[in-house]
């Protein structure tokens, strides 16, 4: 089967790029498959994740102005060339399936290109963030844009969402829920005996690490022997704001911004608890990674990802904005290793449900149905 994945680039570290590498690599190991990845902004940059040498890459060199909307005149002028190049490449490859991964300009025209080829659109963000924007659209353009986006979504053969809650945000009936596959499942798990609580992800306001620092201040008032390690990178201004807050609260010996790491598995295996304070999530892969390492998880019950991964058997969901309840849950968990151990075992068992083989089997079944439907 010939499968084309379309994405803007694969040189920046991110969840979409990481998941694409896992899926494409798995599919490329099947002898009858021929995997292609089309990019628009890759240039001469090296892929940040490992891809099987059997996979064929092609950069279309569109190079949109990333600091502007795709509907800005400067980007709209690039659109005819983009569409023309996509049409040309698809004609050469003659794929059985096309999958649009990132939410870029391709999203809005791919269903109308080479209509005989089944098209799939993946959604890696929560549509929860659109609710207020849709209700309070301030301009006619925005209102029309949402109607246009809804129309485009109906023209895809399948819309892949990461959890069942997300399907409720779509007006079309072509959604299918396929979670992200687990990136690793180590042979060993954490001993849960280090005084380290870990959090990881993109350092951005939506992740609310500022709230996590407030929570840790409450934890520190009752327990001074544990440390909070935060892994990830982001805009320097926000990082500086977080560091200042840590210093102002006199937590600099207990809360650490550790920066990006390529050894997140090892860091998790050396921790005893994972925490998440995001404002919204879709399907946070980092939670599955933590569970694979045998870590209990405490997270705000934000829309919509954590509740699809965490239960009272493997962690704790906290009502949004309940910082006191969050701190109390941390204190209860870190003070009792006998509590952490069964939670960690159940977390590990839950992660096994998202193995690459199990998740990719769903993809393959969908591909096969779509291939024979047109």
Automatic annotation (TrEMBL):
SUPFAM superfamilies: UDP-Glycosyltransferase/glycogen phosphorylase (SSF53756). One of its GO terms (molecular function) is glycosyltransferase activity. Transmembrane segments: none annotated. InterPro entries: Glyco_trans_1. It holds the Pfam family Glycos_transf_1. Residues 189-348 form the Glycosyl transferase family domain. This is Glycosyl transferase family 1 domain-containing protein. The lineage of its organism: Bacteria, Pseudomonadati, Bacteroidota, Flavobacteriia, Flavobacteriales.
């Amino acid at each position: 089967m010939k499968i084309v994945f379309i994405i803007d680039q694969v040189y920046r570290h991110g969840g979409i790029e990481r998941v694409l590498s896992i899926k494409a690599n798995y599919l490329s190991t099947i002898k009858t498959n021929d995997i292609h990845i089309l990019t628009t902004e890759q240039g001469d940059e090296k892929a940040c994740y490992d891809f099987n040498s059997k996979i064929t890459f092609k950069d279309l060199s569109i190079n949109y102005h990333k600091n502007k909307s795709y509907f800005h005149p400067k980007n709209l002028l690039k659109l005819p060339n983009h569409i023309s190049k996509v049409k040309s490449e698809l004609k050469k490859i003659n794929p059985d399936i096309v999958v649009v991964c990132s939410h870029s300009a391709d999203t809005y025209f791919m269903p109308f290109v080479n209509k005989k080829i089944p098209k799939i659109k993946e959604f890696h963000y929560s549509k929860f963030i659109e609710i207020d924007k849709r209700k309070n659209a301030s301009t006619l353009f925005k209102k029309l844009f949402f109607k246009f986006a809804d129309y485009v979504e109906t023209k895809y053969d399948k819309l892949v969402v990461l959890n069942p809650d997300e399907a409720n945000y779509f007006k079309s009936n072509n959604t299918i829920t396929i979670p992200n596959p687990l990136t690793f499942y180590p042979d060993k798990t954490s001993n849960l005996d280090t005084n380290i609580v870990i959090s990881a992800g993109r350092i951005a306001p939506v992740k609310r690490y500022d709230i996590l620092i407030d929570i840790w201040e409450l934890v520190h008032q009752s327990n001074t022997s544990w440390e909070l390690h935060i892994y990830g990178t982001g805009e320097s201004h926000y990082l500086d704001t977080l560091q200042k807050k840590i210093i102002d609260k006199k937590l600099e010996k207990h809360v650490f911004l550790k920066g990006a790491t390529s050894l997140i598995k090892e860091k998790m295996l050396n921790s005893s608890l994972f925490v998440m304070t995001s404002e919204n999530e879709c399907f946070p892969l980092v939670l599955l990674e933590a569970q694979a390492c045998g870590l209990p998880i405490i997270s705000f019950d934000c829309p919509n990802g954590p509740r699809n991964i965490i239960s009272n058997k493997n962690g704790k969901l906290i009502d949004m904005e309940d910082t006191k309840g969050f701190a109390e849950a941390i204190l209860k968990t870190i003070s009792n290793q006998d509590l952490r151990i069964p939670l960690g075992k159940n977390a590990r068992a839950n992660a096994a449900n998202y193995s690459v083989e199990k998740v990719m089997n769903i993809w393959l079944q969908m591909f096969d149905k779509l291939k024979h439907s047109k």
